[in-house]
């Protein structure tokens, strides 16, 4: 969500000190898809949604200094448009660093629960298809490369939306359910932790430490984190 720079840097120091490996989100997706067992133990992926200017102004210098991979989920309607948002040139510069992966967060970040109440079923489906298709087309046109992942706006998804995403060629989609990703996690609803400033380095350490402990007790491979996924993880802002 929003964290102060000092909090983000404290998180990174804790991850390094505790032996976590910050991996590209692509490695997690490959692992979920049953690819090679290439994920190191204590693997963590970092994502940032919405494309605020601070990604370029504040986060990028830290990412370059630390050489860590980050995935951005962007909704194109804001880019080079909203005052708080990145520009397309900034996104291209971020991508050129080789450390930022840029993927879809729908076209204008609708609340699919609200839209479903407002629209007839066919109109809702048309909206959802259009949101995913237009976002992918615009991102590919502006930035090149291929867009195949989606972060659900507000983390909202359901079976119908997952089927629409599948039709639109989405290969992996991400929610905001605070639990570890497991080999058994649904490919179109992979959980993420929403990080808030109130969760300092010790809070994040506890959050991840609980997962690592569960994982270690149920087997040597980190595929066994699925055991931890079934229990409710502590809320990051508690
Ligand atoms: Zn968002």
What topology emerges from the helices and strands here?
Blueprint: H1 5-17, E1 21-22, H2 25-32, E2 43-44, E3 46-49, H3 54-66, E4 70-74, H4 88-96, E5 100-104, H5 112-118, H6 121-143, E6 149-151, H7 159-167, E7 172-174, H8 201-217, H9 226-229
Parallel strand pairs: 1-2, 3-4, 4-5, 6-7
Helix pairs in contact: 1-8, 5-6, 6-7
The protein binds zinc ion.
Care to describe what's here?
- With 238 residues, the protein is mainly alpha-helical.
- The protein has a single domain, classed as Alpha-Beta Barrel (TIM Barrel).
- The protein is 43% helix and 10% strand.
- The chain has 9 helices and 7 strands, in the order αβαββαβαβααβαβαα.
- The chain has helices at residues 5-17, 25-32, 54-66, 88-96, 112-118, 121-143, 159-167, 201-217, 226-229; strands spanning 21-22, 43-44, 46-49, 70-74, 100-104, 149-151, 172-174.
- The radius of gyration is 18 Å and the shape is globular.
- Bound molecules: zinc ion.
The CATH superfamily is known as Glycoside hydrolase/deacetylase
Shape: globular
Mean pLDDT across all amino acids: 90
User: Total strand count, please?
Assistant: 7
User: Could you say what the CATH topology is called?
Assistant: TIM Barrel
Gyration radius, in Å: 18 Å
Q: What is the count of structural domains?
A: 1
The percent of residues in helical segments reads 40-55%
What topology, given as strand order, has the largest sheet?
A: 3-4-5
| Unreliable stretches | 219-238
Q: Spell out the helices and strands N to C.
A: HEHEEHEHEHHEHEHH
Number of alpha- plus pi-helical segments: 9
Give the bound compounds: zinc ion
Percent strand equals 5-15%
- What is the CA-CA span between the terminal residues? 15 Å
